[in-house]
Amino acid sequence: MPFITRNPILRETAHTLAPTTLLYALYVQFHGDYGPGGGFQAGVIFSVGLILYALTYGLERAQAVLSRRTAEVLSAFGVLLYALTGVAAMLRGAAFLDYSALAQQPLSGQHIGIMAIELGVGVTIVGVVMLIFYLLTDTGEAG
Amino acid sequence: MSATAADALLAQLPILLVVAPLLGAALCLLVRDARLAWGLAVAVSAAALVFSATLFARTGGGLVLEYAVGGWQPPWGIAYKVAPVNALLALVLGAVFLAGVVYAGRSFRRELRGRRLQPVYSALLICQSGFFGVAMTDDLFNIFVFLEMASIAGYALVASARTPRALTAAYRYLLMGSTGAALFLLGIGYLYLVTGTLNLSDMAPRLQPALGSPAVVAALGFIGAGLLLKAALFPLHLWLPNAYGYAPSAIAAVLAGTSTKVALYILIRLLFGVFDAASFAAALPDVMMVLAPAAIVAGSGLAIFQRQVKRMMAYSSVAQIGYIALGVALVTQAGLTAGLVHLFNHAIIKVSLFMALGCVVYRAGDCRLSDLAGLSSRMPWTAAAIVAGAVSLVGLPLTSGFVSKWYLVSAVLEANLWLPAFVILAGSLMSAAYGWRLVEAAYFRGGESAGGAGGVSGAGGGSGEGGQSPVGGEGGAAAEDNGGGNGKSAEAPPVMLLTTWALIALNFFVGVNPSWLTSACRGIAATLLG
Hints:
The complex is a heterodimer. By secondary structure, chain A is mostly helical. In chain A, 73% of the residues lie in helices and 0% in strands. Chain B has helices at 2-30, 34-60, 84-111, 118-136, 140-159, 164-195, 200-207, 214-231, 240-246, 249-273, 283-304, 309-329, 333-364, 375-378, 380-394, 400-414, 418-444, 447-459, 476-479, 494-512, 515-529; strands at residues 65-68, 79-82. A two-stranded antiparallel sheet of chain B has the order 1-2. The chains are: A mainly alpha, B mainly alpha. The A-B interface holds A 72-73, 75-77, 79-80, 83-84, 86-87, 90, 93-101, 143 and B 8, 12, 15, 19, 22-23, 25-30, 67-71, 114-116, 119, 122.
């Protein structure tokens, strides 16, 4: 039995909510430039979905999905994505993070730019929140 | 063609100073080998020093570089603006971080044994990126964000030492630093409320008609308190001694040269660039005028009685911050010049001292006064480095400390303030007192403890032989003191000694040839005072 909780209400709720939460996070991520949302919110919601999974299925299974090392790599990867988007604009002769320079049309360049940096923010937030969660739940054997 | 390429690169330097360390920080976390992470950190820091030195040289010619991040023009967008004052801070940061990161390679491997070093290097680079951001940006809220970015990395860096004392020190640093940040942010909020802008160049003229309104008075109070807390001006220094004393040596060195200096830089920028320091905001310099001499006396006095030498140097920093604050509080051309000169000089002196102490920790495991016993024969180069640092703190001629004190005393006397002048001289005597305790322990207290320590160093020896050759250039005066020490010398690794002595060489270079620094500082002071 994969559940670590015996409470059937908690089990069934989490079972339904966790994947929905992850999906909703992706919605918030990719609609961030049309409506309320963006990388930070999406990253937090995504992590909440993962944490819900960890609370009901146990830490081991959660870490099988997203290991501590993966969380660390994600946190660094997001920063890289963000910064390199800015550097890409610089290489095209514009200022750092001037998205208009990223494509032929300034408007599509801005779309690409905002998508890329928001994705970077979201990925870093998932990595950092999960790292914090893993560190707080760490029993203290590992350094 | 190449000229335009160089110009294009020069225009991008302000943002590169922030982005390069940030990219390095992310890459450090990704690599598997700690040495590779170190190599990355060194490469990034070396590039940053080249960038900041270029900016210092170019702005010295009167050039002011402006940079609109994301192409958003000021005052709406975040603007970076590099004038000589920004470039001076960037130069200090670049020198301290490069030396600190190079030094950290061996020091971390000994002091942080068993810990994964990639996150530590990553935090060090985030700290660097944040401080460079403060130096480059012309946006007040951006200053806050960068300051916190660097500070939070700093708390983590202090906590990275493996001792419980370091954890409590880091926690106290966190609480007091965050309190300072919160006060600072409140003040920024009030300024934004009154002026509707966060761009510093835009804010100054808009604030002019509103000076004296209660909101601006509140802003001055909150910003002053917050930044003085971050700058650790006595009696707001309580986070500093333990944070520097128990942090890993390389971290203590880097933070001693950067964190309080950056807070003082922000204070100077706001006091002279935004508030009118001579009339409206005169209350803040008045408060500093009282606190600074108290800091000099209390810091030096407490330093004399410390047994743990890193804590002694931390209390000495409290006193030295007092010297800088005293210069600033005079609100005169000469005073501000002296404050800026000492901001540079103290960074170099104190970093080299903490590095020399880190060399002691590398061999002895700790650096209480008793660990220094017999140091002159065991680790002649380290002992000489400590003496060079102590002499500079006292301010003997030929050291950069002398230049600082000279400018400071003349500035104070020019303002007809005899009591502060007396305090400066008394502070020098007191720093001679604690400096002498180090010299006495290192040179005149050999005996039984030297034998015991020799056993320790014998176990960890092996890399001592390189200590003598690479530093040959600078230390003629040091060599005569320890002719007998070479045979059984158990020096710290050459790379640690080399970085320490590089800063000492810079220290003496400023002491012998101070005009480039003092003329730059005089120009900055003239600009700030309008």
